[in-house]
Design brief:
The protein is α/β, with parallel strands linked by helices. The chain has helices at residues 2-7, 9-23, 31-43, 48-65, 70-84, 116-129, 144-157, 170-184, 200-217, 235-247, 266-274, 295-303, and strands spanning 104-109, 134-139, 160-162, 188-193, 224-230, 252-256, 278-282, 290-292. Helix 9 packs across helix 10. The chain binds guanosine-5'-diphosphate (GDP). Part of the signal recognition particle protein translocation system, which is composed of SRP and FtsY.
């Protein structure tokens, strides 16, 4: 909770210091207060649609209860935000749920620079700490740096990495990684992929090819298609989410760089808009700075 509190500090300041100012000297939640709240949420990257949903719900409460004191507004907002966030089954890596899958296969997608490699390294570390045997597949073969970085993370967190020469077929790396995971009895295989977005059809075809190859080795794989998004890019993250969910069946999100950004509201907007659970959040560059997202702790940190 400590790391989360620190990580969300700027977002919290952005939303709540302004909200406190907006209600200063007022006793009831009136249209002016709601207008201010709307403005605050939109500029905190909650997104227009989600903001309007929140405002409408509060409006409905105001007209139902006739009078809502400004002192109650925080609590109400907190409830509404919590309801918009998807609940996670587990909030610590010890009780991370794999179903019956062994290896549990995570295919990681996202554009360059969002923190994909770092997230993979941190995730490998956390899962290993929780007692799992993990293997990484360096299938982003288009950037030499990507392969090198995965290898480096593998050394750092002492996890095996399967790689081929730069420029080799990503699907072939994915295939090798899963073969090796099965032979080695690994619990989790995490596969990096190239994050080129300039052509949606190309992206779709490439990811489909990788998925098909994975299924030849592990039926049902990938169990998790994890899209990594940089929270500090706010609305860009939403746009990327749109593109990737159209290209492949993303079923989990990782939002990175929540530390140091005031745009943490994007977590709320994305969760509501795409109905895909935010599963992991990055709150720093170190190997321990990845957390399983828990809506209660998140909201608690925001409203402290
Ligand atoms: P990739 O190109 O998507 O693989 O991005 P990288 O994993 O190389 O990360 C890009 C930069 O973002 C690096 O300097 C990382 O240390 C940094 N980074 C990644 N995740 C986080 C995070 O949660 N918080 C902070 N502050 N920096 C991060």
């Amino acid at each position: 909770q400590q790391a989360l509190d620190t990580g969300l500090e700027k977002t919290k300041d952005n939303i709540f210091s302004r909200l406190t100012k907006a209600v200063a000297g007022k006793s009831t939640v009136d249209d002016d207060v709601l207008d201010e709240l709307e403005e605050i949420l939109v500029t905190s990257d909650v997104g227009v649609k989600t903001t309007l949903k929140i405002i409408e719900r509060i409006q409905a409460r105001v007209s139902r209860d006739k009078y809502i004191g400004t002192s109650e507004l925080n609590g109400i907002l907190r409830d509404e935000i919590q309801q918009l966030l998807a609940e996670n089954n587990s909030n610590d890596f010890q009780s991370f749920e794999y179903g019956d899958h062994k290896p549990y296969v995570i295919m990681v997608v996202g554009v360059n620079g969002v923190g994909k490699t770092t997230t993979i390294g941190k995730l490998a570390h956390q899962l290993k700490q929780a007692g799992n045997q993990v293997v990484l597949g360096a299938a982003d073969t288009f950037r030499a740096a990507a392969v090198d970085q995965i290898i480096l993370w593998g050394e750092r967190v002492k996890v095996r990495v399967v790689s081929q020469a730069m420029g080799s077929d990503p699907a072939s790396v994915a295939f090798d990684t899963l073969k090796s995971a099965v032979a080695n009895g690994d619990d989790v295989a995490i596969i990096d992929t190239a994050g080129r977005l300039h052509n949606k059809v190309g992206l779709m075809n490439e990811l489909t090819k990788i998925k098909n190859v994975m299924q030849k080795v592990v039926p049902g794989a990938p169990h998790e298609i994890l899209l990594v998004l940089d929270a500090s890019t706010g609305q860009n993250a939403i746009e990327q989410c749109k593109q990737f969910t159209e290209a492949t069946s993303v079923n989990a999100l990782a939002l990175t760089k929540l530390d140091g950004t005031a745009k943490g509201g994007v977590v709320i907007g994305i969760s509501d808009q795409f109905k895909i659970p935010v599963k992991y959040i990055g709150v720093g560059e170190g190997m321990d700075d990845l957390q399983l997202f828990d809506r209660k702790s998140f909201v608690e940190s925001l409203f402290k």
